[in-house]
UniProtKB/TrEMBL annotation:
The lineage of its organism: Bacteria, Pseudomonadati, Pseudomonadota, Gammaproteobacteria, Thiotrichales. This is NADP-dependent malic enzyme. A divalent metal cation binds at E135, D136, D161. Its cofactor is Mn(2+); Mg(2+). Its EC number is 1.1.1.40. Coiled coil: none annotated. It comes from the Bacteria. InterPro entries: Aminoacid_DH-like_N_sf, Malate_Decarboxylase, Malic_enzyme_CS, Malic_N_dom, Malic_N_dom_sf, Malic_NAD-bd, Malic_NAD-bd_bact_type, Malic_OxRdtase. (S)-malate binds at N285, N316. PANTHER family: NADP-DEPENDENT MALIC ENZYME. Belongs to the malic enzymes family. SMART domains: malic, Malic_M. Keywords: Metal-binding, Oxidoreductase.
Length: 409
């Protein structure tokens, strides 16, 4: 039998290399077609856009085109593999944008990890696009890059690993805590990984009612505590006065473990030391902080999720970014703000409580599935995501004053 590695390499190589290509949207069969598509006809939209840049939305693909841009500095949990090696992931994001939200993508791998150079590249190509999805850029550089680019540009600049991840964690956690009979403001949370995903996810959980005093963040050197002198400004926000200094200390009596760090970091002893009815989101890709089979064998009162497609409860930003951008592009939003993120959270969480459609069951080879410990979040194939999340996001953009168009009919 072939292995996942063999299958994955073959999938990417055959029948033609890569996962995504461009296609033509206009007739090209006759001399007249070419005269319209290219010279001389193409001069007409050029003149219109020269007079009014907004006309680019009318005459080019800009409004439905997103750039997935990476410097390859934090690719999944594989680390700093560089721009080119990250390309399969960026093509993958393009595939997901297209498959789930019919958004066109150019993936762009920028071979510099210098913040100024990177910002200059993105700023200078941004006019081509309706939105910028920054991907797999390590912290703390990613925070400055996103903030400065958003301030310069009038299209959404969205770091998926920060906010896409935060949205799906928040939606999944709201449901998981309800099933476990706990409230977000009461629970002790451990977040391992104080990078792009960890910091942004804890910021959003805080905005949704999590108590910072009950939160311990952990990086590769241990718990972020006030005695540490090696913390950057983003980590310092989460430093607490505690004598818990190791991950094992932090896990003791915790209700929630969120892993946004690297593979196999959580031991069974750590899991066993958590409070009753715990929630573990082991979200490092491709290998989670703890293997779900091992974890479930150790504790039957557990809810566990991973970032992977091959286990129940996939907490992965694929459930957010296609639908969030669809909503933002539909109303030509200038940015993606917290109101839009919250709208996505609530819509995703609510949808998970409804019966799962048959075609979704078929795609996963399941007889049945209903809201509960093994189904806290919708599956990406659920067509209702495309119907509901963009609409909620677009409405939030309108209500918060960042939309330039009304809701589509
Ligand atoms: N399921 C999903 O949808 C998503 C999952 N992720 C996963 O989250 C992880 C982090 O991604 P991202 O935030 O973008 O990367 P960053 O590089 O920005 O951050 C990584 C963080 O993990 C910490 N870390 C690394 N190794 C360890 C360790 N052994 N013990 C404790 N902490 C550790 C780093 O510590 P230090 O600061 O000390 O270097 C850093 O704080 C990846 O595995 C990625 O696949 C990310 C986005 C979405
Ligand atoms: C899912 C994703 O974006 C990551 O692991 O980096
Ligand atoms: Mg990523």
């Amino acid at each position: 039998m072939s292995t996942l590695k063999e299958d994955a390499l073959k999938y990417h190589a055959e029948p033609r290399p890569g996962k995504i290509a461009t296609h033509i949207t206009k007739p090209t069969a006759t001399q007249r077609d070419l005269a319209l598509a290219y010279s001389p006809g193409v001069a007409e939209p050029v003149r219109e856009i020269h007079k009014d840049p907004e006309a680019a939305y009318l005459y080019t693909g800009k409004g439905n085109l997103v750039a997935v841009i990476s410097d390859g500095s934090a690719v999944l949990g594989l680390g700093n593999v560089g721009a080119l090696a990250g390309k399969p992931v960026m093509e993958g994001k393009g595939l997901l944008f297209k498959r789930f939200a019919d958004i066109d993508v150019f993936d762009i791998e920028v071979a510099t990890q210098d913040v100024e150079e990177f910002i200059t590249v993105v700023k200078n190509i941004a006019g081509t696009f309706g939105g910028i999805n920054l991907e797999d850029i390590s912290a703390p550089r990613c925070f400055e890059i996103e903030k400065r680019l958003q301030a310069m540009l009038d299209i959404p600049v969205f770091h998926d690993d920060q906010h896409g991840t935060a949205v799906i964690i928040a939606a999944g956690l709201m449901n998981a805590l309800e099933i476990q009979g706990k409230k977000i403001g009461d629970v002790n949370i451990v977040c391992v990984g104080a990078g792009a995903a960890g910091i942004a996810s804890m910021n959003l959980l805080g905005a949704l009612g999590a108590d910072k005093q009950k939160l311990l963040m952990v990086d590769s050197k241990g718990v972020l505590h006030t005695g540490r002198t090696d913390l950057n400004a983003f980590k310092r926000e989460y430093a607490v006065d505690t004598d818990k200094h190791t991950l094992a200390d932090a896990c003791r009596d915790a209700d929630v473990f969120i892993g946004l760090s690297g593979p196999n970091i959580m031991s069974v002893d750590m899991l066993n030391s958590m409070a009753a009815n715990p929630v573990v989101f082991a979200l490092s890709n491709p290998d989670p902080e703890i293997n779900p089979s091992v974890a479930l064998a150790a504790r039957s009162d557990l809810i566990i999720a991973t970032g992977r497609s091959d286990y129940p409860n996939q907490i992965n930003n694929v459930l957010c970014f296609p639908f969030l951008f669809r909503g933002a592009l539909d109303v030509r939003a200038r940015c993606i703000n917290i109101e839009m993120l919250k709208a996505a959270v609530y819509t995703l969480a609510k949808l998970a409580r409804e019966p799962v459609p048959q075609d979704v069951l078929d795609a996963y080879g399941l007889e049945s599935l209903s809201f509960g410990k093994a189904s806290i979040i919708p599956k990406p194939f659920d067509a209702r995501l495309r119907e509901r999340v963009p609409k909620a996001v677009a409405q939030a953009a309108i209500d918060s004053g960042v939309a330039r168009l009304p809701l589509p009919l």
